[in-house]
Design a protein that fits this description.
Layout: H1 3-24, H2 30-33, H3 35-42, H4 46-70, H5 72-75, H6 78-99, H7 103-117, H8 121-131, H9 136-162, H10 166-184, H11 203-208, H12 211-244, H13 251-280, H14 282-303, H15 308-324, H16 326-336, H17 342-371, H18 382-395
Helix pairs in contact: 1-8, 1-9, 1-10, 3-4, 4-7, 4-17, 6-7, 6-8, 6-10, 8-9, 8-17, 9-10, 9-13, 9-16, 12-13, 12-14, 12-15, 12-16, 12-17, 12-18, 13-14, 13-15, 14-15, 14-16, 14-18, 16-17
Length: 408
Amino acid sequence: MSSHSFSARRRRVLLVIAVAELLVMSLWFSATAAAPELATDWGLTPSETAWLTIAVQLGFVVGAFVSSVLTLSDVVQPRYLFAASAFAGAVLTAAIAGFVTSAVPAIALRFLTGVALAGVYPPGMKIMAGWFRAGRGFAIGVLVGALTIGSALPHLLRGVGGVGQPQLVLYGAAGLAVVGAFLALWVEPGPYQAPAAPFDPGALGRMLRDRGTMLANGGYFGHMWELYAVWTWIPAFLIASISANGGGAGASETASFIAFGTIAVGGVGAIVAGVASDRAGRTVVTSASMVTSGAASLLAGFVFGSSLLVLVPFVLVWGFAVVADSAQFSAAVSELAEESYVGTALTMQTAIGFLLTTVSIQLVPVVADAVGWQWAFVPLALGPVVGTLSMVRLRGLPEAEKLAGGRG
């Protein structure tokens, strides 16, 4: 195959799998975006409302841990695992819209949706790693950018017609996910994808003992402590901030659009960081991103209640930085981990990272109850501090030569 033909094929794969990821990941925050209406319709408590998001995180963790132990991402062809998982998530989300009227079954279905999504994100990253050796940071950056925009889509659906219509948001996300499932089936394995590996119960233990892989994971864990807590609670922060500035009527709709922009702009951040990390190194870009987003967690209180001319640019910069580094931790693990079990290494990384999010997501409203939404995000800065220290340590080790073609 000529180099031109190969480049064209991998660009096509990148486009298709990125669009599929974007559409399927609309499932993640579908119930979160519809939560104000669901809380009113079903009489949910604040705790039950929070569990509509936390259940997905926990389900993802369980699904990812099971997948890691069984090495599913390396035993099953990634495109088949991706498509089947996406379709299952769509059915579960549509069931909430069609049949559920109370908290317990909704939370159970959201948990199972999270389990299903564990079969989407890590296999998508493995597909990208199979097509890209050079430029892998950019490719996985595009994938995470698509995931980011997909995660924001339910807020857009709510803003353009879903206020007061939670079924529109839920059915809309489910329909998009079905399209994404079919798209994934078109993606053929790449030339760099390792063949299906045998089940090896010792593979996970070897990963946990690998110094370079675990330092890259340490960076990712610090990043995840902040990311999903910001994505989950930025609408509530925005509503409180706009109301404090006299926003009053219409604050909810305005906050939905700003929340969409805050999350979606991270898609651009992920792509920009992907290009930059291939040139400057994974550790440099991830550290810079975490310093920026961690500072935003601390400074958010100072822009609370400000005019939209101040608030909107601030949260857009925050949204850009908070997820820009996400793909680069995955790219780093794909370069550092044992080649035959890259899928398992990525799944383990995401499993532990998402387990941490269940703690930070619950922490933010507790802090908000104590000190108000103005300072609710301050504890999230701890994650970027730990993550930055981990990546700085990795940069000083010989293992860093494996990253970004020797750029660290």
